Amino acid sequence: MELREKRPGKPEGSSQGEVESPSYIRRHEQKFEVGVAAAAFLREEISRNLPIFEFYEGYPHTCITTVYFDTDDQAFYEQAVRSYDDNFKIRVKEYSYSHRDGGFLSLPYCYVELKRRIEGTVVKRRIRILKGDLNRLLAGDDLWEAVSGGSSAADAAYLHAAYQELRDHLSRFRVQPTSIVTYRRSVFQQSEQELRITFDDDVAVYAPVDGLYSQLEALTPDTLPAPLRRYPKVILEIKCPSCQYPLWLQGALKNHCSKRLSKFTTSIRFLREPQAADDGERPATGGKAADDPDETRIVPSPIDY
Question: In the chain, what percentage of residues exceed pLDDT 90?
């Protein structure tokens, strides 16, 4: 089955904010955790002001797989736990699209991302690489020709900076896959450079898979082993150049509080403590039980592991 881009030339996962190129993104991000019923209400409210965005025509949802990497002593995880607003991640993202027979349409490449969060601002550098070349890249092989092939002249400098930063980190940190998270994302946006709102549901956590793409053609829910945990809530993210939201969005969010959510630290905690109660399943102080589908009020916590 053929995937047809609605906007030729834009790579999967390209986003808005201060986007100098697909290889460099700088933006403000805020997250909310909501129940299923509240998410349906918010989707309806948001759709009155922003259209749902389809990267590939006819596919309103994108299935995302994120592989998180860390050092042997989990230095990135420990830093993220200590400071939500000052941390660094190395991750690989794969984008796929579910079709009617229950399988997934997967692409031959993935993205390696360096993501740094500093006081509410996210700076992300990313590199597109063929899945078959990923392990060589992470092992330190110089694959600049493979990475840069097909990039535009305007993107070349940003892509090279991302590539050099990745190689620098890989030379200083010996990293390995520590967790895999899959989820389904729907996107509402009008412009790449302005407001972007995403809903992530069907969130599942998996143990890392040996060999990654040397063993599997795609790391999609139909090829991965059974997930260790499922996250019962919907994660709403607002991504924009600043914290200035339009009045209609302020009104839609008036009964919600942002929360310090991290799929990375949550997935590691689930793997460390597989029997531990999910923070999202415990009652929130001053609110309804977090597994209540009608819950709308979320009380912020210092950090959601």
Answer: 66
Burial 262-284 (b: 16+ CB within 10 A, else e): bbbbbbbbbbeeeeeebbbeeeb
Q: Are 246 and 195 in contact (CB under 8 A)?
A: yes
Give the pLDDT score at 152.
83
Amino acid residing at 143: L
Burial of 147 from C-beta contacts in 10 A (0-12 / 13-18 / 19+): buried
Q: Kindly give, in sequence order, each residue whose CB lies less than 8 Å from that of residue 144, ignoring residues fewer than 6 positions away.
A: 160, 163
From first CA to last CA, the distance across the chain in angstroms is: 39
Helix (H) or strand (E) holding 92: strand 86-98
CB 152 within 8 A of CB 124: no
Fold of 18-32+50-244: mRNA Triphosphatase Cet1; Chain A (3.20.100)
The residue with tokens 């531990």 is 276
pLDDT at position 304: 40
C-beta of residue 201 within 8 angstroms of C-beta of residue 184: yes
Q: What are the residues whose beta carbons fall under 8 Å from the beta carbon of 210, sequence distance 6 or more?
A: none
d(CA 126, CA 108): 16
CA distance 26 to 123: 4
Q: Indicate the range of 150-159, 208-217, 268-277 predicted with least confidence.
A: 268-277
Which alpha helices (DSSP H) does the chain contain, by range?
36-47, 75-82, 134-138, 144-148, 153-172, 247-252, 263-272
Q: How many helices (H) and strands (E) does the chain have?
A: 7, 12
Give me the residue spans of the domains in the chain: 18-32+50-244
Q: Burial level of 49, CB count in 10 A (0-12/13-18/19+)?
A: middle
Structure tokens at 31: 């997250």
The helix/strand/coil state of 80 is helix
